[in-house]
Each structure stands twice: as structure tokens, then as C-alpha cells.
Amino acid sequence: MQTIIAAEGLTGEDLWAAFAALRLLDDATEAVGDAAVEAGRLVDDARWENQGVRALRLVLEEVRRTLTWEHTQLMLLRSRIAREVM
């Protein structure tokens, strides 16, 4: 295809249009490449967030179990003291 164009000869306008198209394609290629890199970062961030949320959930479950146990112990202690007083 290039040999046909070369054989026909390109005018100045044709060359300018071709180089403008190449520049636009370069810009588009760079923009899409940058978007792909950013998408990769978002995937990594989401993976970290999921791991972080999962870890937070586990810690909160442990805190809830501990607080429930402490609450039960306090209720038992209060109950014992109340029985002694009455």
C-alpha cells in the first residue's frame, strides 16, 4: 500500500494530513496506554481495599466477641454483688 501511495506521489496537503493522523494516533495510543496503567492501579487498589476491608471485618468481629464476653462478665459480677447486698 505504501508503494502505491509513493508511486502516485503525495501532495503537501496529503503529507500534512498523514502526519496529523499519525500524531493523533500517537496521542490516542499514549492516552489508552496511560488509561490501561491507571486501570491496573485501580485494580491493585481495589484488591488492597478488599483485603483491608476483610482484615478490618475480622478485627471488628474479634472486638465484638471480646466486648460481648466482657459484657457478660460485668453482668455476672453485678448479679453476684446484687445477691450479696440483698
Task: Describe this structure as you would to a colleague.
The structure is a single chain. This protein is mainly α and 86 residues long. Helices cover 94% and strands 0% of the residues. The protein contains two helices and no strands. The chain has helices at 2-8, 12-85. The longest helix has 74 residues, at 12-85. It is rod-shaped and about 110 Å long. The termini are far apart. The mean pLDDT is 87.
Give the gist of this structure:
With 86 residues, the chain is mostly helical.
Could you tell me how far the N terminus lies from the C terminus, measured between alpha carbons in angstroms? 104 Å
Cα-atom Rg, whole angstroms?
Answer: 35 Å
Seen as an oligomer or otherwise, the chain set is single chain
For the sheet with most strands, the description reads: none
* Strand residues, percent: under 5%
The ordered string of helix (H) and strand (E) elements is HH
Envelope shape: rod-shaped
Helix content: over 70%
Helix tally? 2
Please give the number of β-strands: 0
Q: In terms of structural class, how would the helical and strand content be classed? A: mainly alpha
- Low confidence ranges: none
**If you average the pLDDT, what whole number results?**
87
